[in-house]
Amino acid sequence: MKIVLVHNRYRSAAPSGENRVVDQEGQALRDRGHEIIPFERHSDDIEHWSAARRAAVPARVVWSREARRGLTATLREHKPDVVHVHNTFPLLSAAVLYACRDVSVPVVATIHNYKLACASGDFFRQGAVCHDCDHGLPWPALRHGCYRGSRAATAPVALATGAHRPAWKSMVAAYIFISAAQRDLLTGLGLPKDRVFVRHNLIPSRSVPEAGREDTVVYAGRLDEAKGLPLLMAGWDRGRRAAGIQGRRVGCAAAGGQHRRAGRCAKVRRADGGGARGPAALGMGRDVRSRRHRGHGSRRPAGSGGPRLVPRAHHPRCGRCPVPARRSRRAGIGARGRRGAPGAL
After folding, report:
1. Domains of the chain in sequence order
2. Which residues contact 323 (CB under 8 A, 6 or more apart)?
3. Residues 8 and 89: beta-carbon distance below 8 Å
4. 175 near 147, Cβ under 8 Å?
5. How far apart are CA 28 and CA 270, in angstroms?
6. 3 φ, ψ to 5°?
7. Is the Cβ–Cβ distance between 40 and 7 less than 8 Å?
8. How deeply is 283 buried, as exposed, middle or buried, from its count of CB atoms within 10 A (0-12, 13-18, 19+)?
9. pLDDT confidence of 227, banded at 50, 70, 90?
10. What pLDDT, on a 0 to 100 scale, did the predictor assign at position 235?
């Protein structure tokens, strides 16, 4: 098959599992003889644009004429069998769906997050789970300023979500959710059930040497409050005090350059005797050690001898952590959200 792969790549400063999924799935399809034509935009490019062009980004969130024209030209040139859409925010917009309709090419969309129903994309606001928008239009998000804590920044996101929801319901031939839990949380979108499928993220099969057991728990992921790290460390400290546990450690395998931030956060807690709190510390205790996370399946992760703790404590989507944890015969732990933990756990 000939497949056009549509994706707006996230900023490199914020390590993205979605970027890795797109790359790995594209390569897996190439390895099986399919032709992949990337159609991508990069959020990193925005910082190099002129002030006038950057000022126009909110308008592109709602509608990108450039993306529609560019994708239409790509489709007419390559005549693909299908278009696989991943992330369209902020530079592509739902305009790519209209381009596919214009050229009569079917669309498969992988839904990686909750952006179709939630301005922030994670059903998380002010330290707690929030579902104000999941069964209606996203006007509560505008009232709360859910995207980047700003009503002005949230306005184009909410407008795009409301204006293009009919397009997402009618112009997509198949929706791929990465877990049943994620699919169930987005039932309020009213997507046609006969076009909804669940397929967990691909994890490449690699040989990982068996390691000896360590009395360690590993958190692997981005240092983000919505990922549940403060909840993890609060529970960890409480459990240690209640059970009198000594000697067990938490390994924090932070993505990308965030391993340095993890180390700084851990030092803050050590200096304060394990009692520091607040956003700077993210709740990490003095028994935390940090190491750079080099990618799932690439090599043995920090503290891999012990159980592996899976991020996203509040509403797990079954991203990239549970599968390699199970493959390594390590237990995965996740807090149960309002509608249940992901099936992979």
Report:
1. 2-198 (3.40.50), 216-333 (no CATH)
2. 200, 201, 203, 296, 344
3. yes
4. no
5. 44
6. -125, 125
7. yes
8. buried
9. confident
10. 73
